[in-house]
Structure formats: C-alpha cells, structure tokens
Design brief:
About 30% of the residues lie in helices and about 25% in strands. It is an alpha+beta fold. The protein has three domains: about 80 residues, Rossmann fold, CATH 3.40.50.20; about 60 residues, ATP-grasp fold, A domain (Dna Ligase, domain 1, 2-Layer Sandwich), CATH 3.30.1490.20; about 180 residues, ATP-grasp fold, B domain (D-amino Acid Aminotransferase, Chain A, domain 1, 2-Layer Sandwich). The strands form three sheets. Strands 9, 10, 11, 12, 13, 14, 15, 16 and 17 form a nine-stranded antiparallel beta sheet that branches. Helix 1 packs across helix 10 and helix 2 runs parallel beside helix 3. The longest helix is centred in the middle third of the chain and has 17 residues. It is globular and about 60 Å long. The N and C termini lie far apart (about 50 Å). About 45% of the residues are buried. The structure holds adenosine-5'-diphosphate and magnesium ion (MG). Magnesium ion binds next to loops. Adenosine-5'-diphosphate binds next to strand 14.
Length: about 375
Amino acid sequence: MTVRLKPGQTIGILGGGQLGRMMAVAAKHMGYRIAVLDPKPDCPCAQVADYHIEAAYDDLEAAEQLNKVSDVITYEFENVDLNVANMLEKTGKLPQGSLPLEVTQNRQKEKQIAVESGLNVPEYEIVQTFDQVETAIQTIGYPAIIKTITGGYDGKGQMKLKNEGGLSEVETFIAPDSTYIIEAFIPFEQEISVVFTRSQTGDITYFPIAENTHHNQILHQTQIPAAITEKVENQAKEAAKTLAEHLQVVGTFTVELFVKDDQVYVNEMAPRPHNSGHYTIEACNVSQFEQHIRAICGLPLLKIQSFPAAVMINILGKHQEELFAKLPQLHDFHLHDYGKEEARPARKMGHITMIGESLEEIFQRIEENQLPTW
Ligand code: ADP
Ligand code: MG
C-alpha cells in the first residue's frame, strides 16, 4: 500500500530534535503541515512545527493523538518506543515500518542482519557478565571496544579497551542485568557513510559517499568527495542496497562503514537522515531531508546532482560561543543552529557547511576564515 500525501496534509514526526526540525523545514516548502511528538517544550522541531504534542515517546495515548492529526508518520531517531511504532504501523500511516527501528535499536540485531546479508562486520561477542568479557576478549583480542546493546549514541555507553590494564575499568562499566557487545577495534584507514533514500516503490537514490572524522566518538567533520577507490565505493553502495532490501527500507537511511585494505566493514545503521548527510542541504539539488519527505509522502525521488566538494563541521556546546563571536568576520559558509537552549559541552548545537569546486579550495577558505580549530 502506498501512502500519498497532497500539499496541505500533515506529517507527524516522532521525536523533536534537529533531524525532525530539518525534515520539517524541507516539508514546509512543499506545503505540508507538521505535527511533532516530543516531551520537551520548545524542542528544535516544535519551533518550526504546526502542532506539538508534549508527551513521552512511549505514551500510547499521545501517539494515538499524533495519529489522529497526521496523514503520515515518520520517526527522526531510532530510540522511538517499539510499541508506539508497532501501533502506528497497524494504522497504515508509517511507511518506514517498525522493522528498521527494531534492528537499529539493538546492536546485536544490527550485526546479525549485516552478517545474514553476507557483509563484513568487526568480530564481536555478546556479553552480560565480567566473566564473559574475559572469555570474549581471549578470542577478540586487544584493542577492543565494548558498547551497550541499546540506547547508545554519539559515543555514549561505549568504552575502548586498549589492553589488559583496561579490564578493571570494564568491571565498573558493566551494570548488572544489562547486555553489551564487545567488538574488535578496526584500525580503519577511513570512516565513510552511505546516505540513501528508498521510495515506497523500491527505487533507491544515493547521495555522494561521505568521509567522516570523529572526535571522542562524536562526528566532527564530513567531507565529499570521499577519497576512496571505485572498488570501495561499489562495495559500500552494494552493502547499502542489500540492507535496504533486506529491511524493506522506506525513506532516508544511513549505513556507517569502516574502510581497511580496500574492504568495507559495516559499523552501524540509522533508519533516518544522518548527521553525515547534512552537507546535502546546500551541496545537492535535493537534501537528505527533502528526499525523505518525498519518499514517505509517496512522491517520486529526485535524481541527485551535487557540487563537486563540500565540508560540514559540527558545532558542539563547547564550540558555540567562540564561533558565534567570529560570525561577522566569516565569509562563504552556511550556518545552521538547532535552537537548543542548553549548550552542554558535547551536545550537537548546529553545524556549518562549505561548498565549492574542490576540497583544496574549501580547506583554503577555512584557513582564510581562521575558523576556530576544535
Ligand atoms: P554511536 O552510536 O555512538 O555512533 P558507533 O558504534 O558508531 O556508535 O561508534 C562511534 C565511533 O566510535 C565510530 O564512528 C568509530 O569512530 C568508533 N568505533 C566504534 N566501533 C569501532 C570499532 N569496532 N573499531 C574502530 N572504531 C570504532
Ligand atoms: Mg555511529
């Protein structure tokens, strides 16, 4: 069944963060109305939405209210309550479905799907107790990384284990009755992501593959073009396509990959637009958000065209003041601020994007602008 919306109809968004806000802005220029469900008053998406249902993500009554005012519903983050997603899926208004949520909320299921799809993943074990960690590490070896199986994002709920000396820290990191995944740490040459969109009729469009740099496990910078071989590019797109079909993806979806020795390893997936796709707002004829809205509203996807090069840099709470002080002197870059009141040090507050003819030219502009380095 295809959901089709006419301009003027309402898109309901589960989650009111910056991704919801940027989806809403993209939807607005096509004339759609926006309803958002988020517990926080004045959250980034509520600032640009027509209706705000202020309630917890797992509040079934609130979800029912969202359902009533919306003609289609989408989610902007993967920790949306599965019961809510299942309930909305039954109404036929959730084209993304709940399967991609179920899989990406759980790092074990995510790895299993990748393995079933014949893709490389870092070697891993699932553990619950410290004894199991000690056993797992004997096969995985050092360095390794231990992550909570659910609820982690932006490096939260993770710990790197460099050597045996780190084991005592792991003992305090592990909470009783919780499940963790231990992965071999891949000494990757690059991190890349494939941001793509799949329509309700199964067409797929890929945005240019992004090359990502993380600081403290939080995305810091994305650039295109990614400096990868054609072989890696094809492998990455093929992996994305396989997963998209396996999960029957609808909308914008992202696969994060490590590149090592001309091979890709699936790291994680996001069933929604992604931070590493923000550059598409200015660098492409259609952004990851607009293409997502087109997919869930039953419109055909646009053929993607792109500027030759772009760089996106995240602004965290700890950077915001320094950057804002410099704004009047900065030229030729685009500013995005998400309207968040509290600038906690590692919180994503906004981003900047520079587009151009080549990465050399953009990096030169960054130098001329004397952008703060962080
Ligand atoms: P999050 O949900 O916090 O984004 P990720 O699993 O993507 O969690 O981890 C965040 C970052 O930590 C990755 O982008 C990568 O830089 C690093 N990382 C995570 N797992 C591994 C691994 N197995 N090998 C090497 N680096 C890793
Ligand atoms: Mg990640």
